[in-house]
Amino acid sequence: MNLAFLLSGIALKTHDALLVVDVQNDFMPGGALGISGGDLILPPLNRVISAFLREHLPVLYSRDWHPADHCSFQAQGGPWPPHCVRDTPGARFDDRLRLEPKPRIFSKGQHRDEEQYSAFRAEDEAGEPLSATLRRQGIRRLYIAGLATDYCVQNTTLDLRRAGYEVSVLTDACRAVNLQPDDERLALRRMGGAGAKLLASTELKP
Ligand code: VGL
Ligand code: ZN
Fold it and tell me: Could you tell me the pTM of the whole model?
């Protein structure tokens, strides 16, 4: 029997990085803006994080990090219940998510009057935007996974493609809000149409 296929798969390369999007308590089932099946991304996502760390490749994390009176909240006329209010338990990363001792974290949606679904200009603690970190580190290809497919994952992917990055969306390690039942499918189609690859995490070389 030919077992070569077991050894195939996409190999990670020097200029690759992993972007883990908004794996926060409020986006998990039971959270303030709970996403159905959001917890199911954790096993494949943690496997991919481990693979990147093993290869000494960057793993970058974004988080939704709102002020208590953010414009996207219903009390201010926005579409969402209050969620991911900075420094609250709901805004913390899920305990099951694999983090390094000093993870590189980029915060978005920090300004009251501005919605920011894309993590492209999310900022680290020193105020450096993700876009600048990617340039500084010479990253060329991003693998992206997390929550939510139809908001942050989609908007970040489209910004990355506009800026010329290769993007691979790890579809089994993402879940959508699906305010409309078709939103996930549309988001995947838009990202694919913009030149992002849609991959299962199992297609990465183990
Ligand atoms: C998001 C809904 C509300 C996201 C953020 O990051 O995908 N979705 N706020
Ligand atoms: Zn938000």
Answer: 0.95
